[in-house]
Design goal:
By secondary structure, the chain is mainly alpha-helical. It contains 14 helices and 3 strands. It is elongated and about 65 Å long. The relative contact order is 0.09.
């Protein structure tokens, strides 16, 4: 069973070309299933049935696993059994029809428009770190990039003349995104300073020694900017969430936001409609005469 699991992981890495993060998550989830099978004395993957898998999911839920984590575990199991069935090693899928326990849906945290402008419109010193960090923040918010997409970004993916950036997202899917005026200006101010560091490759964002910035370094720089400018925790995905929420709030075009974010399933994008509804509800409560009258009468 271990050998078949490793063969599946090799398939994900070489043929499906999943990201290292996704591969590690799937391997970790499937090892939990493997350990369960060993405790149940199951000799092969074909011996695992839906009742046993349901018992594993229930046990993980009792131990504090979130609904989202359990959904990922079931997704990993389905992927493994698709592979095993195709290879003729199994003829069923114990996860078929099995759903994780429903949990509370947590909305992503965002900055409102005023806080975003407060973050981005402060004075920027004309020096290496300040120019680089400003360009990163502007590009995150301008184009809704994932952290991995900004980390891997190279110069040949930028077209500042036309205001476009080409990014390689999940599943090696490529999309072309607009780059706003402020982000273009920040990049144009940064790139001459980048050249002075003697870059080791074509990375857009580099250290003072010319090496490509890794994910952790970028996260720390974004966190530092949030603490300095806003007095709050800030991470790259919050800027991506803010990009999506503000764009949907203004355009009401869910499909366009889905394309820009690179979501394969529009259901993933629909979470931003809940954020937009919250904004509308706030406007209603503060502006509608009947809502105001109701609030006044309660006080």
């Amino acid at each position: 069973m271990q050998a078949q699991l490793e063969a599946y992981c090799a398939y994900l890495r070489s043929e499906r070309q999943v990201s290292p993060h996704t591969l590690q998550a799937y391997r970790s989830d499937l090892h939990k299933v493997l350990e369960f099978c060993e405790k149940e004395q199951l000799a092969s993957w074909s011996a695992l049935d839906i009742q046993q898998l349901r018992r594993l999911v229930a046990r993980q839920h009792q131990h504090g696993q979130s609904s989202r984590s359990l959904a990922r575990l079931l997704s990993a199991v389905r992927g493994l059994y698709r592979y095993l069935n195709r290879e003729g090693l199994c003829s069923h899928d114990p996860a078929n029809g099995l759903s994780p326990p429903k949990g509370e849906r947590r909305l992503p945290k965002t900055l409102d428009t005023d806080r975003t402008l407060q973050l981005l419109d402060g004075g920027v010193e004309d020096e290496f770190l300040a120019r680089r960090d400003q360009a990163m923040l502007e590009l995150f918010y301008s184009s809704g990039l994932r952290l991995s997409e900004l980390t891997s970004l190279n110069l040949d993916q930028l077209d500042l003349a036309d205001g476009l950036v080409q990014v390689h997202g999940k599943g090696s899917k490529t999309r072309i995104l607009p780059v706003g005026r402020k982000a273009r200006e920040a990049l144009q101010a940064w790139l001459p300073m980048r050249a002075l560091s003697g870059p080791a490759d074509g990375a857009v964002f580099v250290s003072q020694q010319g090496r490509r910035l890794g994910p952790r370094a970028i996260q720390l720089r974004v966190k530092s900017a949030g603490a300095r400018e806003l007095g709050q925790n800030l991470h790259p995905h919050m800027l991506r969430h803010s990009f999506a929420s503000h764009l949907l709030e203004s355009s009401q075009d869910l499909r366009a936001v889905q394309e820009m974010l690179g979501h394969a399933d529009i259901a993933t994008t629909q979470i931003y409609t809940h954020l937009d509804f919250q904004h509308l509800a706030t406007v209603y409560d503060s502006a509608h005469p009947r809502a105001k009258r109701s609030k006044d009468s309660e006080s």
